[in-house]
Design goal:
alpha/beta, 7 helices, binds flavin-adenine dinucleotide
């Protein structure tokens, strides 16, 4: 993607709070572009606890992390947000008419309003501790599959024993010339159906299994092999692609460099990684930039989904006022919002 996308609102983060912000902004006639580093919506709910029951979403006695995400996606459908998954927002710079954002995937946005709903920060891959692995990133080593077609006919080694490693081994097995999986144990932690399918593929020889840990990468300009160690014995596997899936950790990431005032740190050490906002509209110190959900801090802040939903409602009114200073902007009851009802085709 290279053309600049000009829009009124960009939301950074497609977690539950970023998703609900689409709804609240939509009620005021604002449509949003939503960017997330992950390949799907739902933030922590979908990534960290999709099957766990949540009991404190008002009027939903029990809902799983994934079901909450699915419900939110259904709820915001009428407002037709544009999602940009697999993009991490790297920079936020002031331009004449608002803010310019660039992502690691090469997308550029210019937006009057920016809503940071980045939760605990960006999910980033945990990397194997192999000396010099960063030199091979983009030259055979990757921690996510961004373009599946690039693996057609390739010789691939994956690493890990969880759902991501298993799912990608199974998916890529249909395309790769040769495919292997290295894991430190002979058991896997994936969904039972995936484990069963993988075992069948190992049995049939379609997937080569290696017990041990990858300890060294080979190759001059690009990756040509991986050395695996098990019980002091080393073996070299010649591959052109190495995809370790060791899980994700949450890091504040690039937004630490955007000139935002970060939390007080007076009482809770973690506040230092949170964006300080007012409680009237959850504005940051940067004009037109709001922060809602787990990423913000104010006295009395609770890191709960319902708090983020409340923050989204107040932010949306303030965002609308900024964009339409001459209009009377009022709270919208959905029961009487003709705009919403038209979108829902109930009137
Ligand atoms: P997140 O869910 O963290 O989503 C933020 C998104 O922003 C992520 O997808 C991230 O990839 C993306 N992002 C960050 N930086 C960037 C960037 N630079 N570029 C692009 N994308 C970016 N809360 C409750 O209310 N009830 C519960 O019962 C409950 N149980 C929980 C159980 C567990 C195990 C955990 C871990 C949390 C629980 N929580 C619960 C907390 C709840 O999940 C969070 O409050 C909620 O997810 C916050 O939503 P959010 O949208 O602010 O952030």
């Amino acid at each position: 993607m290279s053309d600049k996308i000009k829009t009124d609102v960009v939301i950074i983060g497609a977690g539950p709070v970023g998703l609900f912000a689409v709804f609240e902004l939509g009620l005021h006639g604002l449509s949003a572009h939503v960017i997330d580093i992950l390949g799907k919506a739902g933030g922590q709910c979908a990534e960290l606890y999709p099957d766990k029951p949540i009991y404190d979403i008002p009027a939903l006695p029990v809902v799983s992390g994934q079901a909450l995400t699915d419900n939110l996606l259904q709820q915001i459908e009428p407002f037709a947000p544009t999602f940009h998954f697999n993009h991490m927002v790297e920079t936020l710079e002031r331009v004449q008419d608002g803010w310019q954002l660039t992502t690691d995937g090469g997308a550029v946005f210019e937006s009057k309003i920016v809503v940071i709903a980045a939760g605990g920060g960006s999910f980033q891959p945990k990397k194997p501790s192999i000396d010099g692995i960063e030199n091979y990133e983009g030259r055979g080593v990757a921690y996510a599959v961004r373009n599946i077609n690039q693996y057609d006919g390739k010789n691939i080694l994956l690493a890990g024993g969880g759902d991501s490693a298993l799912d990608w081994t199974l998916n890529l097995a249909e395309r790769a010339a040769k495919i292997g999986l290295v894991h430190r144990r002979r058991e896997f932690r994936g969904a039972p159906a995936s484990v069963k399918k993988l075992e069948e593929m190992i049995e049939s020889g379609r997937v080569q299994f290696y017990l041990g840990n990858p300890i060294k990468l080979l190759g001059e300009d690009k990756l040509s092999g991986v050395v695996i160690e098990n019980d002091g014995v080393e073996q070299t596997v010649m591959v052109d692609n190495f995809l370790p899936f060791y899980g994700l950790s949450m890091k504040l990431g690039p937004l630490a460099n955007w000139g935002l005032t970060l939390g007080t740190g007076e009482k809770v050490a973690a506040d230092k990684n949170l964006i300080l906002v007012d409680t009237e509209a959850f504005r940051t110190n940067l004009p037109g930039v709001f922060a809602i959900g787990d990423i913000n801090y104010y006295p009395g802040k609770l890191k709960l989904i319902l708090s983020g939903f409340h923050e989204a409602a107040l932010m949306a009114i303030a965002a609308k006022k900024l964009l339409s200073p001459d209009e009377r902007v009022a709270m919208q009851y959905t029961t009487s919002s003709t705009k919403l009802q038209r979108l829902l085709k109930v009137i």
